[in-house]
Structure formats: C-alpha cells, structure tokens
Design a protein that fits this description.
The protein is 32% helix and 28% strand. By secondary structure, it is of the alpha+beta class. It folds into four domains: 89 residues, 3-Layer(aba) Sandwich (Rossmann fold), CATH 3.40.50; 67 residues, 2-Layer Sandwich (Dna Ligase, domain 1); 127 residues, 2-Layer Sandwich (D-amino Acid Aminotransferase, Chain A, domain 1); 96 residues, D-amino Acid Aminotransferase, Chain A, domain 1 (2-Layer Sandwich), CATH 3.30.470.20. Strand 10 and strand 11 form a beta hairpin. The chain has an eight-stranded antiparallel β-sheet with strand order 13-12-9-10-11-14-18-16, sandwiched between helices. Helix 6 packs across helix 9 and helix 7 crosses helix 8. The longest helix has 18 residues.
Length: 417
Amino acid sequence: MTSNRILILGGGRYNVPSIRSARDAGFFTIVADRDPEAPGLKEADVALPIDLNNCDALIEAIEKQGGIDGVLSMAEVGVRAAASLSCRLGLPSISKEAAENATSKAAMRRLWQRIGAYSTPFEVVNTPREAEEAVKSLSRFPLIFKPDRSFGGSRGVTRVDGPDQVSRAFAAAQAAGLPNSKVVIEHCLEGSEHSCEVLIWQGKTSVLCIGQKIKSLLPYRVDVSVRYPARLSQVQEQAIAEMCHNAVSALGLTQGAGHVEFAYTEHGPVLFELGARCGGGHTPQIARQVSGVDEFLQACRMACGMPPSQFIPSERRGADYRFLIFAPGIVKEVTIPESLRADPQIVDVGITIQPGEQIRTLRSTSDRAGFLVSTADTLEEAVERANHACRNINVHYADGKTAHASELLEFKELAHS
C-alpha cells in the first residue's frame, strides 16, 4: 500500500473506475475538473473544480491541501498542464518539451521523419492557399487533413480523395483545432488500423495490448469498434513493439503511459499519432481486462517516482470496445435491458444522448450515441457478445420509428469488413 498523494487531471464519467483503482491501491486522490458536477470529483479524496490549464489556481489549491507527490492527466487537454505543474513543483514527469511534442501532430511527424521507417509524407499549413500548394507537393490522393493540436477524438480529421474536397477539409481541420492550430496534411495509409497501450520506464517500453479499429464510413475517420487482441502474427507484434519504443524515444518520453495509433501496411507499421497518456474513455479498464496490468495504476506509481509494480502483460484476453451508432433523428427514448447491465462480461454500457436531442451524422467521437465494452476469453467471443448486446439496445425516435444498432447499413458494412 502507498500513501502517495496524486493530482489527477480530469474527472469525467469514464475516469471513475481508474480513480477508484488508485484509491483502492492506497493513493490519496486529488481530482481536478472545471465541471463542478464531474462524476470523478465525487470519487476523489479531494475535489478541485478548477480548469486543468489554470496552473496557478491548481498550485494554490494543492498547497492548501498539503502538497502532492505526482500529477497525471487523463486526457489530451491536460498533458501539457501535467508536465508544467510537475516542473514547477519539482515532481517526476516527462519534460515540458516532450509534452509539447506529444500534443502536436506536426511535431510528431517531424521527429518521426528522422527515424524514417515509421512516417509518411506530410505538410503543415496555415492557410487555404498553402493547403492547395501542399496537395500539389504531396502529388497524390487520397490524403488526410487533421488539426495539428486539438482535444482529440478524431475532430476535424477528413479523408480527401480529390482537389474539389481540399477547401472543405482544410476548413474542418482548422475549425476543430485549438486556437491558432495549424493543419497537417499527409498521405492516407492503406492497411489495417490499430491502437495500442504502452508503459514507459527507464528507457524501456512495454506494449500491454494492441487493438484493431473498425472505422466509420468515409470521408470521416471515427472509431466504431476497437477489438482486442488485434489479428496480428508474432512477427508483426514484434515489429509494433520496436516501432513503439522508437516512437516514444523520438518524442522524448521517459515515463508513464502512452496511447499509440498506427496502420499496419504492406511495408510494416506506420505511425498516425501518439498520446502521452492512457487511451481515452474506457481504454485503461480494457487494458487491465485484456493484459492483466492496471495501466492507470502503473502510471500513477511512475508519476510519484515509484517503479511500476507490473510492466509486462500477464494475460491475453478478448474485448470489444463498441460504440453505439444510430441513424440521424430526434431521440424520444433509448432502452437498454437490465440483463446487459448485470452481465459480468459487460464492463460498461451507456447512452450519451438525451431524450429530445438530435442524433447527428457520424463525423467525430462526440456524434456517437453510446458505448458498450464486452470482454471474454477470446476476441471472437467478445465480438459476438457485443453484437448480441447491440441487437437488444433500441432507440425510439420522435417520429415513431425504432431501430437497434445492428440494423444500420453504416454499421453493417463496417462490422463485416
């Protein structure tokens, strides 16, 4: 048991199980979130309803609480703040420069380009005119447009198949980025798409689990399912492990957790981007279920200067992180059978849209209507469990129609790809 005091940046609903696991392990948890009603604040030993990027206010509040031993961000928005706070307080952390690298897609691309093996041609632009010139320089379609810096969640990420789509894609990427964010344009990679969770400590990188992504229909690139373990050979997994180690080293990451997104092409793995944090949403819980390692807890230990107590996966189980996608319309009600909520193999299931709200066309993660996490001994069993659950979750529309997730053409095409 430990009595270390840790500041956790982010108290959203998905963070609650991780906060509980830290408390169960003996950490004194101080959770900060600008939303005073954030569920994670209620789970903390001390709640700080403060914006994650207001470092001065956070330090003042921390000092009143008697100080802390470490800082950890649960989301992209808090990565720079965690590094800055740690630097000012003299706490273990990645450097501020590494945090900046890990929150800028342009910086990642430039640093990975030096490695050579895992990058793809790209350009970074500020204006529509520069975007048009960059497209000519990149010389072929399809291309991917994305904001350099954003809140994540595939916001502003668009595939472009021809010159007539360039203007709209640039505007979408610019609008979805943080203030003054540039736009990154890169070759679209052909191959299976993946994400993996890694731990980093004293020059070593451990891949806990690798997921295989099922994406929304083009031109948008939103996850509708992430399935574990990905269907990869041992040789492919070894190549991914080597890539992850080189990728985190190039960005200057020295400790903590990382979320790596990439494609596996005919030439091997090629990087999309990397987050210096655990994956979003339920990913830390999934990593624990499928690998036997509590990724978030190990990140807490490292943030407080302690070595990880687990670093290498001890299990290999199946999981399906399924997102509930429904056709556009006004929601009257969504029903989830209680049997699903009571199923021990369903880690969590929920709806993120309220009665009276509009379900929109799927363009970013915020357009998804809900989620479901299924687990099993194998990938195939977890996918079948998720399919069965989706057939029993119904959306009732204001116009009287009813549908369940597996009826949707958009999802059917993806689920059987």
